[in-house]
Amino acid sequence: MSLFAKKPTAKGIEREIGALQLEEKKLVAEIKRTAKTGNEAATKILARQLVRLRQQIANLQGNRAQMRGIATHTQAMYANTAMATGMAGASKAMGAMNKNEMMSDSIDNVLDDDEAEEESVELTNQVLDEIGVDVASQLSSAPKGKIAGKKVQMDESSEMDELVKRLAGLKNP
What we know:
Number of helices: 4
Mean pLDDT: 82
Radius of gyration: 53 Å
Shape: rod-shaped
Largest sheet: none
Helix content: over 70%
Structural class: mainly alpha
């Protein structure tokens, strides 16, 4: 190979291997012919050429295997780089979304706590007003302790007696 020759490619190496294998077949045929003629010196020279040719073929096959391995590694590295780039973009997007979500949650928590508490108090007061219950006045007049329990029972029985008397009065005018 000269210094200014093109860099070998996989297809170029394949062509060289094919050409050398054809040359090997020709050389084997020539060795057989010279051996039949009885020319031992020429046969030995041709045999050395055959050994060198086979070494060259083996060397080119090794180079071809290395080139295929390098191509496979290059493709794997490209795939890893593409995946890493995609993951970096995805992690940036997830970080931005997470940051926005955290801010939104914080704002919602601050606003919701005050608003929810105020709304629940207003709603409770509105419902109590609709049914005519004034909680504060009932709590202050409510009886306290064990005695209150007996008094409530007595009040209920006296109210019942009053209702019975009124009913009787309505029946007998």
